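Quick start: what a row looks like.
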Amino acid sequence: MRIDRNKKLAGIPILEIRRLLRRSKNIYQWNVFFVQEELGVSIDQANAIIESLEKEGYVEPGEISRDEKYWRNTVKGNALALGSAAKPLRRDSAENKLVDFLSRVKQVNESSEFIYKVNKVTLFGSYLSSKERIGDIDLAVTLAPKIQDRDEFWKLNQEWIRQAYKAGRRFSNIAEELFWPQREVLLYLKSRSRSLSLHFPEDLKLAKKTKVIFEEE
């Protein structure tokens, strides 16, 4: 998804909204206080932002717990969370970035530095159009544990999280902590590229056209 960096939503710059949705992407559901804290706004402003996000289809109501309202990201919201404000790419530059990306996929699957592997990569979005200049390169990435034994993998997963804490990494919630071994892979695959937009497979629901460019045998 392309983002107009000059756009605002409920008076908040769209890049701040993107940051909020990125933070909430890996949380099952969140409340108004989460928005207040993340954006540094009042409760009334936070409620207005949530109302606008829901109206635009970026979030939807979650479960109600102890009479408190919760929300969660929609597929459209997750697409905005992963959207790019970078300048359009020439097709030849995009092709080179995709080759480099697939090289990193191979490295992840062969390396003992990651406990998740890439099972499948599906390309979608503007790259599959005939345009010479395209937006970001949208890739849906399917990950899977490298170890099949569930108990053994759970122990390894916990060890990976302990090592992350030891290295100085901090997590804002339990979801971020548990998701870290997967996020570690995605960060490596993205390699700080503003042109690569990595998605979960469920984000393909919005795609009109897709192409599998990698699938483990």
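That is the whole record. The radius of gyration is 18 Å. Helices lie at 14-24, 32-39, 43-55, 75-81, 91-110, 150-166, 174-190.
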